[in-house]
Design a protein that fits this description.
single chain; mainly alpha; two-stranded antiparallel sheet; 34% helix
Length: 96
């Protein structure tokens, strides 16, 4: 009796060469045991539709870092320095 040259993939049903390590059509492989539940997989281990990204980030990284120090004071300081710089350069051009 001659050996078959192909066999049907248990996951997708397409013909697979006899010595193939994986189905060329769906990616099911001998490592997964040619599982039928591989039919919906594309080889990536992605989360399902019910995945909550915000909850994942919260669990993985904790709450966002809180700013230290009064940010309003730094903003006011930056504006004052900008105005002072503009006035000093403006005055320098006027008194040349």
């Amino acid at each position: 009796m001659a050996a078959k040259s192909t066999f049907p993939c248990p996951a997708c049903g397409e013909d697979v060469p006899a010595k193939a390590k994986a189905c060329p059509h769906c990616g099911a492989c001998d490592k997964s045991g040619w599982n039928e539940d591989e039919s919906g997989a594309d080889g990536l281990d992605l989360p399902g539709e019910d995945f909550d990204y915000d909850k994942f980030v919260q669990n993985e990284f904790g709450s966002p870092a809180k700013r230290s120090g009064p940010a309003l004071i730094w903003k006011i300081t930056a504006v004052v320095l900008l105005i002072a710089t503009v006035l000093l350069f403006g005055a320098g051009f006027l008194f040349r």
